[in-house]
């Protein structure tokens, strides 16, 4: 039997809960802090859960990975891994077997039969799905929230194409909880809101990857969950994303309708949610050519933004900071600026977005940078546009986003009249390479 890791448990219980003064830190709170520390300091996405912390404390896992160990040492104020009770598992060679000088492939082929002679995907065809709990508990709901947060963060940083299969599998598993597991009445709303949060993350990844039908289905699922939970805040976020997808797909009228539906009871929404929806409304109005209505709505969005209190916002709204607001409203003004040849205000906002986006939001920074370069190429100095575009192309190279790739194509086309300039020719070449990659 494994020995309990009392050092780790004691170190956790010595730390005060960040949410409940006077109480020891819970396993889930420790997991959340570890995930946040790894993302902030190491630039990687982690998915530590309360269940895994429990395995560490029970001694079922004695040597977590280096990222987890570094974060736990920092958060629990430990000098060494040993101070937290961690130790490397002892390696024992199989009795009577020596692998020195043995052809490893031949050895594995002998040990596993024909496993290595068939396609690797065939090995997974009969993998069992994870067992569902008979009764949904608070920990199950918190794990869904954590998974949704991790995937949403990944989407912002790397784009939606790389891990769609993983988020889809998690979403199917979570929906199965709604259908097959018994949920206490007191947890009903929380469960539906958590699954809706995950559904939105999956939907936006699909949108970014141009899997538009998948995105629409997932957004509808998320909206149904928000309605079932009576969660006006999640409802606003989902309908905002549905509107953005409709506008992107060339249907600003539907986008405007969705935004107006989300704003019907704006008194129930936070300032950030109102600013987000008004920015989407401005985008739709700009696409419809309603110049003055666009400017008025941008002003209303700015006013709502000044009232934001970040601590009062839901987890899925934490991204909506000054840089995001500047980018969203700058995108709305982009269309007006191209038509009127008056780029100053749109350029100012897009430049503020590029300067303000943290590394975790590299996709947003890339898309705003591409739009700023396109606007400058169309209305200003081509050499300045090429310099801006070069930075945006580097950002875009770190992500997999069909939306960003299409914006790069637009910049490539806009640069055609100036392609004889050396800096512009170099930019167009780098865009072509980035899109092919």
UniProtKB/TrEMBL annotation:
Composition-biased stretches (Basic and acidic residues): 1-18
SUPFAM superfamilies named among the record's database cross-references: TPR-like
Superkingdom field: Bacteria
InterPro entries per record: TPR-like_helical_dom_sf
Disordered: region residues: 1-25
Protein name (database record): XRE family transcriptional regulator
Organism: Sphaerimonospora cavernae
Organismal lineage: Bacteria, Bacillati, Actinomycetota, Actinomycetes, Streptosporangiales
